[in-house]
Structure formats: C-alpha cells, structure tokens
Amino acid sequence: VQLQASGGGLVQAGGSLRLSCAASGRTFSSSAVGWFRQAPGKEREFVASITWSSITFYADSVKGRFTISRDNAKNTGYLQMDSLKPVDTAVYYCSADPTGWGRRYDYWGQGTQVTVSS
User: Fold this and answer.
1) How far apart are CA 56 and CA 87, in angstroms?
2) Residue 26 pLDDT more than 80?
C-alpha cells in the first residue's frame, strides 16, 4: 500500500482544513487508517483512526473537533479538522494497518504541514 497525504496549509485559529490520504493497492478497504502528527521538538502522536468496519477512535485533544472518515470506493481516507487551534500545528501523517484494526501501522505516507496561526 502506498499512501499520499494532502490538504495541509495555513489557517487561522478557529478555521477548518480537510486532509486526504489517497491509497494505492487493493487492500485499502480491509485496512485501518490512522492519522498521526508531529510538532516541532515533539514526538509523533496519535490523532485519530478508523477501522475497516468504520469504528473510529480519537485522541482526547481532538475529540469533538476532528472527524475521521473513509471512502473505500475512492481508496481515500479523510481527516476533517474544525475549530483549529495553534497547538494543532504539526506535520500530519496518514498510515494504514492491513490487519484492519489500527494496532500495527505498516504503511506511512509523507507528511502534510498544518499551520494554525493565532
């Protein structure tokens, strides 16, 4: 599976962005999709995931503001980010877990920069 993340950019606090994760390969629909982020000087952290059966999980810091979804027909995962805060500034990475449950992310896309200005 190859992953291509896109949709990052510069936005003011309170604004919205939608990240996309386009996947190649025939295993996307049976894979879990995860989003992670890494801010400067910090370790990569979990943001959200969606299993093959569309069960979703969120980090507490984004719960209620971010929404993860998937479109298997398009082999694409999404992360809708609303009410963005400056602390959300980071490089965002999408990943895929072929087991379907989000416990082992074997595939990673390149990051997309999200910058939230105050």
Assistant:
1) 22
2) no
